[in-house]
Amino acid sequence: MRRASTGRPALRLLNTPLEREDPAPLVSFCSHCGSRPGPEAAPALSRVCATCGLGLILESRADVAPAAGDAFLVLDRSLAVCAVSHGAEHLLATSEPDAVNRHVTDLLMPAGAEDTGGHSLAMAVAWAARGDGGTRTTVVRPANAFGIRLTARIASCGPPRAALVVLE
Q: How far apart are CA 89 and CA 109, in angstroms?
């Protein structure tokens, strides 16, 4: 360590600040079919999807929001299932009425024997449900099947604030 002329240790810069990226724009999507209301659609008095009539309109960042037909879940901060997309119903062999209010581990389990990435499913959902702006990725499997691995992208959505788990 070098010393400055005053006899004190000199300070040195260890890390340069990272350039902050502009956050991705928010997009709306249906919690059941994943369709996005068109920009020409006038704000409706109802939050129910005009396409399928079954889901609520939620918002998430454009880079993580599901596309129409994608398999995804919406979870609250207690890891309870709030919504199941039509694609996830088929992928996980369940129906939304059977899955809502159940714990996420009734539908999804971590796929690896050990979590080497440091991002567990529960931790990622908890961060997203509290409104953390980041996206986390982990590998999961359906709770009722072995040998199937799915990549899960987990980010925040709402209102109300929840975690969006998009299965790939």
A: 16
* Residues in the chain, overall count: 168
Task: Characterize the bridge pairing of strands 71-75 and 57-61.
Answer: unpaired
User: 167 Cβ partners below 8 Å, 6+ apart?
Assistant: 70, 71, 72, 73, 87, 88, 91, 140, 150, 151, 152
Half-sphere exposure of 5 (CA within 13 A, CB side): 0
Which residue type does 69 have?
G
The answer to whether the peptide bond before residue 39 is cis (omega within 30 degrees of 0) is no
User: pLDDT tens for residues 37-76?
Assistant: 876 555 556 788 988 989 999 999 999 999 999 999 999 9
Query: What pTM was estimated for this model as a whole?
Result: 0.80
Interatomic CA distance for residues 149 and 108, integer angstroms: 10
Domains of the chain plus CATH, in order, are 63-167 (3.30.450.20)
The span from the CA of 56 to the CA of 158, in Å, is: 10
